[in-house]
User: Fold these one by one.
Assistant:
Number 1:
Amino acid sequence: MVCLKQVPDTTEVKIDPSTGTLVRAGVPSIVNPYDGHALEEALRLRDRFGGRVTVISMGPPQAAQALKKAVSYGADEAILLTDRAFAGSDTLATSYILTQAIRKVAEGEPVDLVLAGKMAIDGDTGQVGPGIATRLGYEQLTYVCGIESIDLEKREITVWRALGDGRELVRTRLPALLTVTDEINDIRYGSLPDQLRAARYEPITWTKDDLDLDLASCGLKGSPTTVARSFTPQARVKRQTDLIPDGMERPREAAEALAAKLFGRPTVKKAALEGRKLAAEASGGES
Amino acid sequence: MLEETAGAPRGPAEGRPTEEGAKPSPSKEDYKGIWVYLEHAGGVPAPVSWELIGEARRLAKDLGAEVSAVLLGHGVHPLADEAFAYGADRVFLIESPVLRDYRTRPYARAVVGLVEKHRPEVFLLGATAQGRDLASTVATTLATGLTADCTSLDIDPETRDLRQTRPAFGGNIMATILCKNRRPQMATVRPHIMPMPERREGRRGEIVPESFGMTEDEVAAKVLRYVRKRTEGIPLEQADIVVSGGRGVGGAEGFAVIRRLADALGAAVGASRAAVANGWIGQDHQVGQTGQTVRPKLYIACGISGSIQHLAGMQSSDLIVAINKDPRAPIFEAADYGIVGDLHQVVPALAEAFERLIKEEESGAAGRAAADDGGVGEENQ
């Protein structure tokens, strides 16, 4: 199973300078890029080991577009979870609803692996994947940048996880939930038959009535966190800028003037001298 | 709490000892104190832990609360003294061989047990791979709110709620999040956002040792190997000076001039999202909302226009220099020094000028040293 989110392309998001709010009109919706890598990995595993890839997404009815996109890449089935009762869900409520849907799928066929992106580019939380793993009681592997091996007989999976300053090779049992980074693979284009299939495909739609849900755990009611206020970020302090003149006409003179000013500051001088020493040590001391 | 039945998490919480009898579930007022998760990898602490202790101290003043650190591991108790030196009043300590490597399940089980027993009002973790992994699992198990990647925290004086402000939509908008009815209020905070607190050697605190019943047989995950990343040059997060290139650099080859200036200054190389997205330089170098946050002593932005999302990652730097062809680029508003010019001409000249100044400084220092010990220092040259 792959969990996927439709997101606004945040590189295209603009702010209305008069109101300070997000301009959503005209901003293209895309499949969250990290989820795209999760889907790609699921498709590769299916090609190696068999099985089926089911994609699931919670969102407004328009999120069906993202699911059709997933089918065009080769997903076998797509499920859209959409209901007014789901609106306003924070990460805790979202992971609950997705979990209940995955449980329903798992009644029909065993679910060995759930994959998702390491985070969505609009919310940037990375909390829903681990939330699902916790609720399902699956082994949780976040920030996976490569699958080393899967042993279906022993029911084991070994993966590389990308951590801050290195990588960790970790083995655990199946079933597991993986959240993946974009290093894990390169996304291929869907085949022509898959694209044709997607054009006609309509995702399965589940509402609150299709799932075994405690409605008090869904949507705004089921969300412990609320947004009290949102605003446009300001550069914290506008600084007084000492503009060195004639950078265009006399770049060398401007550069020398700047270097002299910076190097005249004791903190900069000290940082540069110490930084050079550290760099020399790190490269093995050759000078 | 309604989630107890429906959303009942079945993960690490499974099999944990239930509270004796049917005690009434604790109310908001039963939660007191601010906790910080003391992150480490094999006993090497993550500096964000100290930044968070500093931040917790600040919040503790408004709440009239104490600051506690949570320390899990095997043979890690010396870190407790560090936590005290940075300002913690108390350290909850669990030592067990099962906790030698960070693994989600045993760590989450231990933390959930501590929270249920001691009930903190606020619980802060670093927004690192480990902190995010742990926080998500713990918050889900406790069915409480968790706000990711906060950049500022403060206390509402009337309600005592923690106001948790964070960027969203790639840094294009900021949101202040509240967790009004559940406790603890959990948040992850990005490294380098909060200033490092003063370290006071010899400051004491209370160590509260706690037991942990989990055995190795109960943990499926095994860490087989750890490979430290080989970074090219000085890592961003450690550098006192960062020289960054953006769209104006023009291509992968263009980064040669950025590297040259960085080498001259013993600096790390940074990059804007545009430069990384174009494949000119690796993602490890990305500064900004979607990359790393840095706060060096000197930040030199070359050919970077200064999008909100980039500024979010570097605007706390002590000193900011902007070099850009476009005099209207927003980066100039955030800069202390600016040159409007072509970076391909200015940056190499800047590197040369610094190389000369540093050579003078070093030979001056060598000369002084030579004078001090009677003239034998010359062989350094």
Number 2:
Amino acid sequence: MTSTLWLAGLALVLVLIVAGWYLSYTAARLDRLHAKVSGAWHTVETQLVRRAEAIVELANSGQLDAASAFLLASAAADVLEMDDGDQRKRIGAENDLSAATSAVLAQVSIDGNGGSDAEWLGLLVRTDRRVQLAATFYNDAVVEVTRVRRKPVIRVFRLAGHAPLPTSIQLDECRVS
Amino acid sequence: MRIGIVCPYSFDVPGGVQWHVRDLAEFLIALGHDISVIAPADDDTPVPDYVVSSGRAVPVRYNGSVARLTFGPRSAALMSKWLQHGNFDIIHIHEPIAPSLALLALWAATGPVVATFHTATLKSRAMQAARPLVGPSLEKIGGRIAVSEDARDTVRRHIGGDAVVIPNAVFVDRLRSMAGGRRWAGTATAPTIAFLGRYDEPRKGLSVLLSAMPEILQRYPQANLVIAGLGDEDTARGAMDETTSRAATFLGRVSDADKAELLASADLYVAPHTGGESFGIVLVEAMSMGTPLLASDITPFDDVLAGGRFGTMFSNGDSHDLAVKALAMLGRPHVGRHLAERAIVRARDFDWSVVGRRIIDAYELTAQSFDAATLAPPPEPEGWRRVLRSGRGVAR
């Protein structure tokens, strides 16, 4: 009788240890994913700043008429002066900037024969492509964290704490015709 | 940057992934990066000096063809050692879900990881079975690359999330400079038709071309069919009728120089692949050489040829259509040449100087995100979660 009790007790302790390990492992995994998302977002922001700087350069290049240059410079300034806070507001402003840039570039005929034109355009295309790359990587991380947070064990034991659920982003490209 | 590249397939045998890894390594080395590639290899096979062997490869049927893979505890130990010694700024894993070296690397990796997905034919049941095992390690991947839209679809369907499409690449100028002569050049009445690839693999579509040959030979009785690549010649000849067999020449495995020369001499290069192809690298090679090109209309080929703007396409698997298009092209060579001239320009979009830059972008962004994630203060745990905190190890 006593030995059965002992065995049952031992089994219970084992189950508790395994459960504890699993909870701890899942919590660590979730923390890692949250860190991954915030790291990826940091990269998106850096790339967006670079792109805005490339657009400011384009506005100041003297290749554009005064009205277009002013439009781009002010849209870029809006983005660059933003403080890190509201992600959705930031994305909205960035997409306004993309739209303004695309609209301006649609009006300008681009001299494909090299020269300074090709240079600032190349910089814009490169920075814009890196923004897209960073955004895709960020969205992948968001999908991963979302999937893990849907697990029942996370919800029942509130392993996510008060960390906000990150959302995916949609950043428009600058269209270069 | 110090970059560690993991290639799951043995360098002993030819294959798209291996070639891609070799070219990528050489491209990066030329730019001054510090590269180490780990791949399975037999001890006596000569490999480039940037390749570290992860041990012997075992042939395994996987994903529709025979792949030579390494696994087991010894490989796992070698992998950990390689990662530790390498101290890489970025780890680039190719085909991360192959049941092999790539998976070992993913388990052992502690730094920033970029992964390239090549396959477009992943079995979904296999992925589901492997999910609990592979899922958490896939989260170590900071940047995902797919080599084609099809490969990207596979990622989206079986893993979730997305991937950036960065196509395979070719050293256009190097390839062009390799073609010394025109050994296989045909004439107007005896044109040369070229086929490249492992012809014993059904998905390379040699049988589709062979069924079309009688129709072609009826119009051009002296046409030559030159087949370059690995396979069993006797079996292949057994599947041919007599006239086709007489027209066929088998070159076996060819060097890059011979391949370039064959493409440069051929009057028509036929790519009858029926599917399972991740990207039309063979097409880009033919385009680089200015070879008139006839390809099946599978998605990756359609992507490269932009819906037929840079080469002719026939209905996949349809031998009669192949024959009709081939005869039309051979009958009007100037049209094919015109298309081929445009194709040379198009091929430059797939040159390493263009494509490789985008891979480096992926490295830089992934490394940056990883650093930012590591430096960021962990969220303060609330309530009873503080208890869990104490026991856990930091895995990155």
